[in-house]
Amino acid sequence: MIAQNSPPRRGGVSTPSEAKAQTGWSDRRDLRLGRTDHAGASALRLTLHPSSARRGIPLACGMVSGILLVLSLPKPDLYPLAWIALVPWLYVTGSISALRETLYVAYAAGLVFFAGTFYWISETMATNSGLSITLAIGVGALFVIVFALYFVLFALGLHLAIKQFGAGGLLFAAPLWVSVELLRSVLLSGFPWMLSGYALVPYTGILQMAAWTGIYGLSFVATAVNSLIVYGATSRSKMALGIAAAVILTARFLPVLAETRPDDPLPVRLVQTNISLDQPWKQPDSDQLLDELGKLSTGGNTRPKLVVWPETPAPFYLNADAGFRARMQAIARRLEAYFLVGYVDAVGEGPSNSAGLLDPKGDQVSRYDKMHLVPFGEYVPFKRLLFFAESLTRQVGDFIPGAEYTIASLDGHRISTAICYESIFPDLVRRFVKRGSELLVVITNDGWFGESSAPYQHLRMGVVRAVENRRYMVRTANTGISAIIDPYGRIEASAPIGIRTILDGTVHFRSDRTFYTEYGDVFAYANAILVAGLLVWREHARRNRRTI
Question: Is the residue at 519 inside a domain?
């Protein structure tokens, strides 16, 4: 029954939506564009009578959110924007009653975000895979078109939540967002590059929650603040706005708590080889380069116990090339140090992207074969389905993935190596630590990315892997950015992009385990279960309503 003192709609005409409000099926009247049903609503009013304006402003808001998300991530790394990046999009999502328009806006936001964050894909494909510029641009565009659908999926879920709960449905934005990011991380081998939580990494205090929740906890916090701002503004909730402000201030000033002092030091040397993609590999050019790198690796005033070269940027064959093997053994023997080097080997009938550890005597004591290969770089997924794209499949590498989480011994301690692309996968890295790794080593060749934002993005993800597992990370990149990262996400030393140099420092072994190391993405899956439960409950409520 409708209360007699309910305010009339425009022109004094009541609508059936009032009856819906009494059954819990909100008409979202407080969120509709142009509504002035409550006191002070004029501050939020958008007059969108013409159809063109009604379409244009929401689309613009979605695109603005996409731009703000791009800007909040490296580079330019304007990370405070993460607190408001989703606000325009969430506001119009709560304001639009038509599902189709809601999805259009979401798709626009997704197109802008993925195009702006991953603009470097086409260039990398052209350089790495030998594709023509036209084909590389086509692959990059296809990536953006497909991945923008993740934003559409999020908007669909949020639309249903708002339809069910009114303005309160906005508070489901955070678990929905985490669920969609989890899906992006696992579907079709996964691609969790630059999840939104990476924008909050500069807030070192709040970053520590990753040891419990993984990167998804940071994504949850950022999205929750955005949704609280929109909910507080549209519902005039001072509490919601106060909570959002408190979270932002806490992130700004929270220090690292309960930090433990490290022990078991290990002097390390990172060799940033800076080998150009155009480097000729015929003698005498190759010999001159390897001579220079040998002198660089064994120079300096310190005595490292571990020397690390990057992922192989060249046709280095540790086992098949006796000359190259002799050079690597000479480096280990001269320094009397362990030496980790990237090289190409064979697994079965195909090549492998591998890392070998030599002991101070020059004997190889460990080998790791990269398990998670780069799609369209090291292999072609769905090759049979892409038979029509012969020029694409012919020019992409055909590497064979490894199958074992290799843990190597080093003077009574245990270390692990992840190669390049593998470091973006939280679950893969934590499995090394759960198997006993006391030090994380990442070797990569980011030379394909040039001076784009990709090397900075790649480094940012490595920082979170260190925090998730409370391990020091030694990260050696061919062209940079090489870095030593402590277990709390602080970069203790780094080498800039584009120079050939060594980076000396000291890391520490650790054997403790975090909640995330032990249990993985429990937090993310809990969010997904919550979202699934909401959908099941809504469907059950809808069917019951039909029978009444």
Answer: no
Give the three-class secondary structure for 445.
coil
Does 480 lie in the same domain as 361? yes
> Quick one: three-class SS letters along 242-276?
HHHHHHHHHHHHCCCCCCCCCCCEEEEEEEECCCC
Cα torsion for 340, 342, 344, 348, to the nearest 10°? Answer: 60
370 labelled catalytic: yes
Assess if residue 476 is contained within a domain.
yes
In this structure, the answer to whether residues 495 and 537 fall within a common structural domain is no
Contact 482, 234 (CB under 8 A): no
Q: Specify whether 201 is located in the same domain as 70.
A: yes
Active-site entry in 123, 181, 305, 311: 311
Are residues 434 and 513 in contact, defined by beta-carbon separation less than 8 angstroms? yes
Nearest to 260 by CA among 520, 511, 436: 511
295 is catalytic: no
pLDDT-derived band at 86 (thresholds 50, 70, 90) equals very high
Strands laid side by side in the 473-477 sheet: 407-410, 413-419, 439-444, 473-477, 482-485, 491-495
Q: What is the CATH number of the domain that holds 379?
A: 3.60.110.10
pLDDT digits (tens, 9 = 90+) for 355-402: 999 999 999 999 999 999 888 777 777 666 655 444 554 445 678 899
Q: What would the pLDDT profile of 129-151 be if each residue is shown by its tens digit?
A: 667 788 888 888 999 999 999 99
- Residue indicated by tokens 């701002």: 229
Number of domains into which the chain is organized:
2
Instruction: Say if residue 243 is in the same domain as residue 275.
Output: no
36 domain residue, yes or no: yes
Cα angle 190, 130, 375 (rounded to 5 degrees) comes to: 10
Same domain, 534 and 463: no
Structural element, H or E, at residue 358: strand 350-358
For residue 155, CA distances in Å to 72, 107, 177, 301, 499 come to: 21, 9, 9, 57, 44
In the residue annotation, 61 being an active-site residue is answered as no
Please give the DSSP secondary-structure letter assigned to residue 423. G
Which helix (H) or strand (E) is 159 found in, with range? helix 149-165
3-state secondary structure 323-346: HHHHHHHHHHHHHCCEEEEEEEEE
* 310 upstream amide cis, omega within 30 of 0: no
Q: Is the pTM of this model over 0.85?
A: yes
Q: Is residue 277 part of a domain?
A: yes
Query: Which member of 61, 181, 370, 422 is catalytic?
Result: 370
232 plus 294 within the same structural domain: no
Q: How far apart are CA 5 and CA 339, in angstroms?
A: 81
Three-point CA angle 210, 211, 213, nearest 5°: 55
CB 112 within 8 A of CB 72: no
In this structure, the answer to whether residues 212 and 317 fall within a common structural domain is no
280: containing domain: 267-513
- Whether residues 57 and 195 share a domain: the answer is yes
Q: Is the peptide bond before 419 cis (omega within 30 degrees of 0)?
A: no
